Amino acid sequence: MMSYKEMTKEELQEIRKEVAAKYDELKAKGLKLDMSRGKPNTEQLDISMGMIDTLTDYNLVGEQGVDCRNYGVLDGIIEAKRLLSAMIECPVDNIIIYGNSSLNVMYDTVARSMTHGVMGSTPWAKLDKVKFLCPVPGYDRHFAITEFFGIEMINIPMTEDGPDMDMVEDLVSKDEAIKGIWCVPKYSNPMGITYSDETVRRFANLKPAAEDFRIYWDNAYCIHHLYEDHQDHILEILEECEKAGNPDMVFKFCSTSKVTFPGSGIAAISASKANLDFIKKQMSVQTIGHDKLNQLRHARFFGDFNGMLEHMKKHADIIRPKFEAVLEMLDKELGDLGIAKWTKPNGGYFIGFDTMDGCAKKVVAMCKEAGVVMTPAGATYPYGKDPHDSNIRIAPTFPSTEELKQACEIFVTCVKLVSLDKILETK
Amino acid sequence: MMSYKEMTKEELQEIRKEVAAKYDELKAKGLKLDMSRGKPNTEQLDISMGMIDTLTDYNLVGEQGVDCRNYGVLDGIIEAKRLLSAMIECPVDNIIIYGNSSLNVMYDTVARSMTHGVMGSTPWAKLDKVKFLCPVPGYDRHFAITEFFGIEMINIPMTEDGPDMDMVEDLVSKDEAIKGIWCVPKYSNPMGITYSDETVRRFANLKPAAEDFRIYWDNAYCIHHLYEDHQDHILEILEECEKAGNPDMVFKFCSTSKVTFPGSGIAAISASKANLDFIKKQMSVQTIGHDKLNQLRHARFFGDFNGMLEHMKKHADIIRPKFEAVLEMLDKELGDLGIAKWTKPNGGYFIGFDTMDGCAKKVVAMCKEAGVVMTPAGATYPYGKDPHDSNIRIAPTFPSTEELKQACEIFVTCVKLVSLDKILETK
Predict the structure, then answer these.
(1) Which residues of A touch B289 (CB under 8 A)?
(2) Type and span of the H or E element at B178
(3) Beta-carbon neighbour count of residue A320 at 10 Å?
(4) Number of inter-chain CB pairs under 8 A, A vs B
(5) Does some domain include residue A49?
(6) Same domain, A197 and A313
(7) Given A251, A282, A303, which residue is the final one in a domain?
(8) Contacts with A331 (C-beta within 8 Å, 6 or more apart), sequence order
(9) Are residues A418 and A294 part of one domain?
(10) Looking at this predicted complex, what is its ipTM?
(11) What's the pLDDT tens digit per position in A129-145?
(12) Contact between chains at B52 and A49 (C-beta distance less than 8 A)
């Protein structure tokens, strides 16, 4: 295949006819496919079915003598703390176990800062302006939280090593209104990028103007590898922050949503003791405690962290072929055309795809017309505004491999067609 | 027995000697007892053990085809909505199912009002002053929420029919800063009072100065009867509000914490469609959804609302003897002395006890010295300040009946001793 950009107008017009015919043919099939949802498939859910039976020996008393059926234990039973602190890589004393959703923990963290500040700082609701840095493309639900609270979001471009740290350092040190940055440090959503050691160290060594600046470190895919032999690793940020003299600068989040059952998992926050003490003051007003039976269920199901890692291999075996099917199709159909770029992540839930500037919305719209739902173009940017209109998030986990191949065929056809039109505009 | 107040100084001094000797004797036993905790006992938890097995047929697809293991369904599966709407008495369309804690739902409701107002009103954080009416004695965790958000709390005395409605009507109609009132309308915490029909109707017909005034109707004990033949009933407030032309004026809360497992139950809010639509906007930012497996577990365990009512009879059979043991002891030991009053509730979790003015703190302190933990005096009032220093909450459910009898013996002895000293002061 030859790059479109090297072709003559006539060659391009010829190809456009073929591609348009292909599109019409595919559209005529009237398919209903979906590559938008970052959710586990049924086969993945099935490997956790042992969770349903885990407590049927009726022994519901935890190691520390807690009857997990009754009230009590605000911050989580020791078994759950041990499991999730291993997962999120922190001392067992530096974690609070929450309910079923890390998103909810992040929401609560921002909400609390609005009304009560951070470790004694002025409540953000009393400030004229609060800003967050948002590495882009990023996770739409992060941006939805900050938008909901009227927090101004500033785009930070992602590099292959993580966010543009020159820009982060510069902005954070100058502007006291900047109170946080959203990070998915490992197998990022949607690009699958893992932050380099240097990036993590530069984060830990930030010199923020705001005392209540925090790094919102959403380690959603910390153990979500696709390969046994190609796994990404990140430096542990809590420890790096401590080394750098910034022990209170980070909140780490994780959950088992994509380990066991989404919606029926357990979530956690990890931070310095000073941060956790402040959080617990609020938490003790908010709730008597989270679902300890579900905490016990998780701890007993996995036995220990090794059990969890073994479990993750089963997930990898199920979703790896799906990622590979998509990547193969992209390589084969778009590899040399010079009209798109995409990532080949070692883990996580997404493939990040970039069209030529100004093409993403049209591609997604054409896909929809032909029966393929993609994540809306722009969703990976604050306010839904991708300044290049180029980023599209591909979510390969939920559909069957067969469906994925059909969906990809339509997707690449749309990419070709929209790109051809774009190139022809200037010829 | 004769009323203390009718006795001479000498008679009282004689009795005081006897009571003090009794106290020393009881104290010497070195008991460790607790009548402070409104939590179910082990036997109560045991009747819900079927919950542990409920899903072991591995059929985890809900009626409407939802795979309850995966993401999705923000406001609860239909099975859970049907069950809890029957429990809280509302149409199935007027409910949202939450996570494990109605306290958390109430917290979220106030927190959202702080940052985003109520159905479009000015966020309370932007107002100079926000006030809540607090029927007293009441539930300390309600007051903790409003105190946490800096909301000024105004005491409203409770009568046998519910809050003093003359005062409520007057204050609410005059003061735009009053945004809510905390209510436990049935078997109230701690007095076990149930609001009369007239009280409910007067609530529904309030003419609040603030458009964002809401009644926070925590129907925590809606089906928590102690007797089959003496059950309290309340008018359904949502419907009454609608009739009165105030359809949006109430938020109802409930949970299964004291039906199945505290901490592993499901909670709900019920309100008008306009209120729920506003809430869902926030909720969709806060979470992807709550634990649907636990919703399914509850629905399947009970089958239907009748199953839940049958289940509640088992709870009643377990805790009724405990209430009766306490009441018998109070009657026998304090019945005619004229130094205390207490309630005989038909349901709920508490017996409300009033000492003579200025005695509650001393009684609780003396109990503690003799090994009996009571809810701290004052806890049933905003800011922990009981203006009469008279109210003590007795929680009979958790200890064994034998422990309760021992604890009560100490309690009544302390009440006598403190009262005697009080009366002797003025003789």
Answers:
(1) 101, 263
(2) strand B178-183
(3) 16
(4) 157
(5) no
(6) no
(7) A303
(8) none
(9) no
(10) 0.96
(11) 999 999 999 999 999 99
(12) no
